[in-house]
Amino acid sequence: MAKILIIDDEAGILQLMTKLCIQQGHETHPFQSGKEGIEALDRLSPDLMIVDLRIGDINGLEIIRYSEDHHPDTAVIMVTGHGSVETAVEAMKLGAFDYLTKPFELADLQRTVDLALDHRISAKKEGAIKVDFEAPVAMSQLIGESEKIQEILSIVEKIADNDNPILLEGEFGSGKQMVARSIHNKSRRRGQPFKVLQCSALPEDLLEMELFGLPGGRGESIFSRAAGGTLLIEEINLLPKRLQSQLEAYLEEIAVRRISGNLPTQMDVRFIASSIQPLERCVEEGKFREDLYYKISIIPIQVPPLRNRREDILPLVDHFLGRYAEMSNTKQLEVDKYAHQLLEQYSWPGNVGELQNAIERACSFAEKGRIRPVDLPPKVAQKVEISDDEEEKIKHQLPIGTKLADYIKKQEKIFIRETLKYNGGSREKTASMLGVSIATLYRKMGLKLERDKIMSS
């Protein structure tokens, strides 16, 4: 994956951010002093630097300035507990991609890291610079053979050049951004910018600045940076109520000016919003403005989770393998039959994003040009569903990779517990039914504790 440099003088925060980045598969280099951080920056030339504003020996803004001057290809995220809009503006002017205020959610940091790395790759492509194949790349096309995906592709063809706002709804990682990019790539705006703003990644004051610029109309906004192209506002269900009102008024002004033929260049944007939560339900619960909901949902599109379109799993796998082969300049890997079966059976709670990460991991571990079950993430490879011989509708999950003795012990305990419940908690009847002694029952189950639990349930 990517090479990440983290500079923060708070040991606990540094350890937490380092652990998260390592869990995401990144090569991570943590430092507690600015001097050591700058030395590492020169030595490592990382893909991404996460830097605290106040480190002790050096101001974080100075490190960002140094990075921009000497390592312009390194994406930068500033993290601080002393945040303000002015500091954020200064950091972004110096070249920072984004800004997080402590305390922050780990999910926000994870998303911001992914977005920063994606932005770095997009910028490199625009500048015709060679891209490191290990860095994550956002899919720019919608892939799938399922009826639902074909239906969405048909809608995309029809609405690509229509400037009406679009609302994409679906679970996290289901492919909403891919749909948005497909719409952009099919439209007359495809040669213009495609910008993404993540509502959950920024504090309210900075989010307001991103949407509408500085007070008095000064400074750039996400709208002006997307001028002529497409703007995707992700997780709009998390947009604060105060900003919902401002956004509704701004979109209304765009609509009126477009109809009158008096639309300024900086407002000429195709607006797309996405939401993890059903917005209509958010309106009913009073969490989202009704007028804004109707304004942005003129063209609604539901993006189904991957578990509801399993016929798309293998085409997506083939796409990720092909892209890996192209970017690594190697022959495309094959997937053996049993690994295919595991990929198709897994429920993919993280949807397309989780599948992509699983394939990238498998490519790193594969040997002799073939991906085997052992190369897949443990949560994918260690469970397989089997059908009961007598009743095909009953499914059992077997934890492949578990020691036989441990599995038998667990199943035996479950069976004894259910038999005990069947017999109303009677140890004597249970032992007789199972053909074992009371002493054996005690030994196998620690019966007193287990019985107390059963009788109180």
Structure, described:
The protein has helices at about 10-25, 35-45, 60-70, 85-95, 105-125, 145-160, 175-185, 205-210, 220-225, 240-260, 280-285, 290-295, 315-330, 335-345, 350-365, 380, 405-420, 425-435, 440-445, 445-455; strands at about 5, 25-30, 50, 75-80, 100, 165-170, 195-200, 230-235, 270-275, 300, 335, 370, 385, 395-400. With about 450 residues, the protein is of the alpha/beta class. It folds into 4 domains: about 5-125, Response regulator (Rossmann fold, 3-Layer(aba) Sandwich), CATH 3.40.50.2300; about 145-305, P-loop containing nucleotide triphosphate hydrolases (Rossmann fold, 3-Layer(aba) Sandwich), CATH 3.40.50.300; about 310-385, Helicase, Ruva Protein, domain 3; about 400-455, Arc Repressor Mutant, subunit A, CATH 1.10.10. The strands form 4 sheets. A 5-stranded parallel sheet has the order 2-1-3-4-5, sandwiched between helices. Strands 7-8-9-6-10 form a 5-stranded parallel sheet. Helix 3 (about 60-70) links the parallel strand 3 and strand 4. The protein starts with a strand and ends with a helix. Residues about 125-140, about 385-395 and about 450-455 have low confidence and may be disordered.
Question: What CATH architecture of the largest domain would you give?
Answer: 3-Layer(aba) Sandwich
Average of pLDDT: 82
Q: What name does CATH use for the topology of the largest domain?
A: Rossmann fold
Q: Looking at the structure, what is the overall shape? A: globular
Low-confidence stretches: 125-139, 386-396, 448-457
Order of the strands making up the biggest sheet: 2-1-3-4-5
> Could you give me the name of the CATH homologous superfamily of the largest domain?
P-loop containing nucleotide triphosphate hydrolases
Give the proportion of residues in helices: 40-55%
Which CATH top level class of the largest domain fits? Alpha Beta
Structural class: alpha/beta
Query: Kindly, what is the distance between the CA atoms of the first and last residues, rounded to a whole number of angstroms?
Result: 47 Å
**How much of the sequence is in beta strands?**
5-15%
DSSP E strands, number: 14
Integer tally of domains: 4
Number of helices: 20
The profile of the biggest β sheet is: 5 strands, parallel
Please give the radius of gyration in angstroms: 27 Å
